[in-house]
């Protein structure tokens, strides 16, 4: 991919009017797989052949890498079909909602600290009662 294509991708914040939106559950996805699953090629082998022969454009430039990694905001053109790739919202939301290991450990440690504090307070209260007798 050229610098110009990178700039075009970063500036493309809106979906081009003449493109069909294809949502992917995660990124990256290999180019030939998108061609196959979107019905632009009848098989993976045919999709790879189409790419290798220079018939497919990615981000408005000829792409010959069959396994080119495609992600959110990329465009694909083949045989008068124009596709805009968009990461499915649920995939991004799920990843954002899952707590990290550090967050889980922090929560567990906080619960243990609370439990220990509660036990310590109960011991002090019991000791105070014993001393007052």
| Oligomer state of the chains in this structure | single chain
Average pLDDT across residues?
A: 79
Low-pLDDT residue intervals, each spanning 5 or more residues:
1-12
Helix coverage percent: 40-55%
Q: What class would the helix/strand composition place it in?
A: alpha+beta
Tell me what you see in this structure.
This protein is an alpha+beta fold. The protein folds into two domains: 91 residues, RNA-binding S4 domain (Structural Genomics Hypothetical 15.5 Kd Protein In mrcA-pckA Intergenic Region, Chain A); 34 residues. The chain has five helices and seven strands; from the N terminus they run H-E-E-H-H-E-E-E-E-E-H-H. The strands form two sheets. It has a five-stranded mixed beta sheet with strand order 1-7-6-3-4. The protein has a two-stranded antiparallel sheet with strand order 2-5. A hairpin with a 2-residue loop joins strand 3 and strand 4. Helix 2 crosses helix 3. The longest helix has 32 residues.
In short:
By secondary structure, this protein is of the alpha+beta class. The chain is 50% helix and 18% strand.
Keywords:
alpha+beta, Structural Genomics Hypothetical 15.5 Kd Protein In mrcA-pckA Intergenic Region, Chain A, 5 helices, disordered N terminus
SSE topology:
Blueprint: H1 3-11, E1 20-24, E2 29-30, H2 31-37, H3 44-52, E3 57-58, E4 61-62, E5 69-70, E6 75-78, E7 81-87, H4 89-97, H5 101-132
Parallel strand pairs: 1-7
Antiparallel strand pairs: 2-5, 3-4, 3-6, 6-7
Helix pairs in contact: 2-3
